[in-house]
Design goal:
- This is DNA-(apurinic or apyrimidinic site) lyase.
- One of its GO terms (biological process) is base-excision repair.
- The protein is of the alpha+beta class.
- The protein folds into two domains: 179 residues, MutM-like, N-terminal (N-terminal domain of MutM-like DNA repair proteins); 139 residues, Helicase, Ruva Protein, domain 3 (Orthogonal Bundle), CATH 1.10.8.50.
- It has eight helices and twelve strands.
- A hairpin with a 2-residue loop joins strand 2 and strand 3.
- It starts with a helix and ends in a 6-residue tail after the last strand.
């Protein structure tokens, strides 16, 4: 499932490429035809990501709420103007021309996790990206808009950029009141509002619950954006037993976990990858950016020795999701 960093990256792409522009909207798949008709020819006014959900406002007090769920993704094509706050995997954006488009070195990991063309559930795409006049991209025999490939729930199109939504859990239109109600149901997000206030909300929510902390971190009403990868890594980084009831976790540990989430989310947004290991030398960092298995402490390492103590990493199911943890470091 795409985690919070991916949704914030998507929102920033929309802010650069769609806000302030009228869009042509359609539902090639047909499942969102009525909603697309409402959005069609309206100007995008703002976009906001909260946790794993994105909210896009168009003129006329209409909001589009999208939750990618397990399999959803946005595919971008055409001329993509990349938000300058988003770095490539090697820590730099590459050279840019005066229009702000990337002209070299889009660095991907082996799973394409930080791809600028497709953000969400990992997938292979046939999306064309025109990075600049000097780079290959849309060819003379390509058509505009690009042909629809596969099941596209919603297509949003400007004169130069196309965004195709595939496989979302939710794609609905909302009134301003409905949008605010949706946001109110979500826990704090470090990139939305005051992080200090978010910390207090998180601490209070955890302190009330006898639920295992491993489940609370995945509860989007407790904290927004944390998914299976960040959950496992944050628990290890805190050396915290995943089965400990939330109300039994020392408040100082809960606060440090929030501050760790602030750091990790910012890194994820900037790099497009869930980097959770610290103090890597340059070669180790580059390897970690290229391969997920070099990027995490415990996630996806069942049966392998703990990087700290050598104990075999355990795998169990909790909350219908796989949990990786070290029985020694997190005893």
């Amino acid at each position: 499932m795409p985690e919070g960093h991916s949704v914030h990256r998507i929102a920033r792409q929309f802010a650069r490429n769609f806000v302030g522009k009228p869009v042509q909207a359609s539902s090639p798949q047909g499942r969102f035809a009525e909603g697309a008709a409402v959005l069609n020819e309206r100007t995008v006014e703002q976009v906001q990501a909260v946790g794993k959900q994105m909210f896009l406002e168009v003129e006329g007090d209409v909001w589009l709420r999208v939750h990618l769920g397990l399999y959803g993704a946005w595919d971008f094509s055409g001329e993509i103007l990349v938000d300058p706050t988003i770095a490539a995997a090697n820590g730099r954006m590459g050279q840019t021309n005066q229009r702000g488009t990337i002209v070299d070195d889009e660095i991907l990991d082996d799973a394409g996790e930080n791809s600028l063309a497709s953000i969400g559930a990992p997938r292979k795409t046939r999306v064309h990206v025109r990075m600049s006049e000097q780079t290959t991209g849309l060819q003379d025999d390509d058509t505009w808009p690009p042909p629809v490939v596969g099941q596209v729930r919603l297509r949003l199109l400007t004169d130069i950029t196309c965004a195709d939504l595939r496989g979302p859990t939710a794609c609905v239109l909302q009134t301003p009141e409905e949008m605010l109600a949706s946001v109110a149901k979500l826990g704090p997000d470090p990139l939305v509002g005051d992080p200090a206030e978010g910390e207090e909300r998180f601490v209070r929510a955890v302190a009330k619950k006898g639920t295992p902390i491993a489940l609370l971190l995945m509860d989007q009403a407790v904290v927004s954006g944390i998914g299976n990868v960040y959950r496992a890594e944050m628990l290890f980084r805190a050396r915290l037993n995943p089965h400990m009831p939330g109300k039994a976790v020392p408040q100082s540990v809960v606060r440090e976990m929030w501050r760790d989430w602030v750091r990790l989310l910012s890194i994820g947004v900037e790099t497009g990858q869930m980097m959770t290991m610290d103090d890597l030398n340059p070669d180790e960092y580059r390897a970690a950016m290229a391969h997920r298995d070099d990027r995490h402490w415990v996630y996806h390492r069942a049966g392998l020795p703990c990087r700290v103590c050598g104990t075999e990493i355990a795998l169990e199911e909790i909350g219908a999701r796989k949990l990786y943890w070290c029985p020694s470091c997190q005893a």
